[in-house]
Design a protein that fits this description.
about 325 residues; alpha/beta; five-stranded parallel sheet; about 40% helix
Length: about 325
């Protein structure tokens, strides 16, 4: 199992073999997490610090749980009450933490590139839990694992990513990962929510939901990133749902066995019909949450192995 990276900062620099290595190990952790005894010792004796400069429920909780299940000492830093609020720079924060000798640092930050900058200043392994509009690598990996377990493969699938593409780091990481694994990717949404130059990513772009969903295997809905919007990107939530919200009628354009995904948190009745989101025959949204713990366990395990090898050398 090869994964030679020091950090997990994004999908962009991962090879298909790296992605497969994480998913294969995550598969074993997904099975472990369904057992009465869920704990391993891959991170025994190691310290994991979670630094979330943005609010998070799923990502922070799953990283915390992943570390604890692998035997790490886990500390969650409250960035809202940290010295950052007193004017301390990100680099000074990184140097302070580095002096505490953590082994794994999990960081979510509102500025693109901030996690990469921090990784250059510390000796430990850094995992990007989402930076601005840039990337969210573990979300893309957990989405990939969910697709692979539901479909039996992760290549040559037709996958539609729908909604607020422009503001979504989840969309960017998924486009990169799914493209590397030889899938056909369609982006669906209003022109106001499509980033400029999106055609350079080797994707198909659709403004019409029904046309874009025709015969797809996977429908991945995205949250409207209202906190990142500084203008009138949509006429109204009601109009948005009418044109781009996923309901049973629009889903009827996809293949009969198409699965429905959403990274959460969901705006029910805006991006997706609530009944459809809860449909156990089509929705894999809860599976995504479950796979999140397994993927983060696998990612930290692989980075910890590399860290131990470097230390031993």
């Amino acid at each position: 199992m090869t994964f030679s990276h020091r950090h997990l900062l994004g999908i962009e620099h991962l090879a298909p073999s790296d992605i497969t290595a994480v998913l294969d190990l995550a598969d074993t952790y997904a099975d472990l997490n369904r057992q009465p005894q869920k704990h391993g010792d891959a991170l025994a004796g190691m310290t994991q610090i979670n630094m979330f400069f943005e609010n998070s429920t799923r990502t922070q909780a799953s990283f915390e749980l992943a570390g604890m299940r692998l035997g790490a000492d886990v500390m969650n830093m409250s960035m809202q009450t940290s010295s950052v609020k007193k004017g301390e720079t990100l680099i000074d924060t990184a140097m302070t933490l580095n002096a505490m000798h953590p082994d794994l640092l999990v960081v979510r930050h509102p500025s693109s590139g901030a996690v990469d900058l921090l990784a250059q200043k510390v000796n430990c392994a850094v995992l990007n839990a989402g930076d601005g509009r840039h990337e969210h690598p573990t979300q893309a990996l957990l989405d990939a694992l969910t697709i692979r377990r539901a479909k039996g493969r992760l290549h040559r699938l037709n996958i539609a990513i729908c909604g607020d593409i422009a503001h979504s780091r989840v969309a960017r990481s998924n486009i990169l990962l799914l493209g590397k694994m030889e899938n056909r990717i369609r982006l669906i949404g209003p022109p106001t929510l499509m980033p400029s130059g999106i055609g350079e990513f080797g994707v198909e772009v659709f403004e019409d939901m029904n046309e874009g969903l025709r015969d797809v295997d996977v429908v991945m809905m995205l949250r409207l990133q209202k906190e990142r919007m500084d203008g009138g990107f949509i006429p109204s939530e009601r109009e948005y749902y009418f044109r781009y919200g996923l309901d049973s009628e629009k889903l009827g354009m996809a293949k009969e066995d198409a699965i429905v995904m959403h990274p959460g948190p969901m705006n029910r009745g805006v991006e997706i019909d609530g009944t459809l989101a809860d449909d156990i025959h089509r929705s894999v949204i809860q599976d995504q949450v479950e796979m999140g713990v397994a993927v983060r366990m696998a990612a930290m395990d692989l980075l910890a192995r590399n860290l131990r090898q470097r230390t031993a050398a």
